[in-house]
Amino acid sequence: MSKRGDKAENGKKFFWRLHHWVGVYTGILIGVLSLTGAVAVFIPEIDALILKHHYDAVSTTSPTGMPQFSKSIDSLVRRYPDYSSLAISLPDHPGQAVKVDLIIRPEGGDLKRYDFFIDAGSDYIIGQRDHQNSLANYLRQMHVRLYEGYWGRQLVGIGGIALAVVALTGLLIYGNFMKRQAWPNLRKSVNMRIHMADWHKLLGISALAFNLVIALTGAWLGLQPWLMRWLDITTPNPYKAAIVLEPANDRALTVDWQGILNATEKEFPELQPRYITPSTNGSGTVMVRGNIPGSIYERDINTLVLSKTDHTAVFKYDVREQPFGHKFYYVQEALHFGDFGGLMLKALYALLGLTSGFLSLSGFIVFLCRKKKKKANKAAPGKIAFAYSVLILLFLVGIAQISLFIGYAEASLVAGIIINVLLAAFVGYALAKYLMGSYRRKRRAILARK
């Protein structure tokens, strides 16, 4: 074989080892992120169904055609004068309730966060819930940070890098081979290893582009705090309103909410308002955030800031008019969650997202089959893979039960303990295996010299 051929063969072996070991050691993480991500794309739809059927949070028709909530907001402000933040979420569809996200931070007490639901037709409060213990919060927190507050988000970012590595190395290993095959080509065999290997290659190549997009955007979103600090990147749209009065006087200002909506339509007609947030820091402003139809950017990033008193525009942020750096920054989350093309696109995202979980499972089964053949291991690969899958589902369901029925803090504590113990065990196992392998190689070298 020529030197060029040897080099190509050695390169292929290197990529195969990299694909193999990265897949084996991060497969569970990729599988968890695949499963939770496939559900997380439907968070708004799932939450809307829960509000409608579990909390009976349904609105009657507004006589003016615009959502009515002024009296309810006034009553909430009087009931919770020590609130630190209040965000009004406007309904996306007729019949949905107005939702108010209220954060209360009493002096010397624990932070509390509630969602209140307002009938947008008759303007009265029809229900409430603990925001942190909601299913919507669980789905997002589990996918974004695995419910581990210290470095769970960074682990998710590492999972994104791992998915990108296995996707690219899979292309380098199997790309030419798959090019010569009829698509789809599945060998007829009762052998589990061959069956799983064929599906692994077929789905890996078919969903390659999608998995790369999810992997790279997920790596950025997960590692964002570190990357922004290391690369000295600042968040686009760093608007800071000037303080013009005392915070207590700011809270006491009466806001004409219908006037705010009318001013928004006049100043920023393309904007579909979704969140309205009055200031509490003394700036005397109201921030309106929302989406522009047809644009592929992070939800609710377009912003209009209005004066509380005369509704004049203080600041406007239209992402379409911003430089490339801003657009690139805000396109990441939209591409990652498919939140820009309607329900059918989300369904496609969910289906394709599950392929990375299947690739982890099928790759693990192929690994176990090879290991069984090499070491005459009697354990059935299918049963081992099934046991791992059940354990993952038990973890996800268990943390969900704790979060929904006991509390977010308790669920985060349990998840943190489990994840950190598993991480320590994983690092210890990998280190022990490396040291043992190094010792064996040295011992063989010594015996060979004798």
Automatic annotation (TrEMBL):
The chain crosses the membrane at residues 21-43, 155-178, 199-221, 347-369, 385-407, 413-435. It comes from the Bacteria. Keywords: Membrane, Transmembrane, Transmembrane helix. The keyword Transmembrane applies. This is Iron-regulated membrane protein.
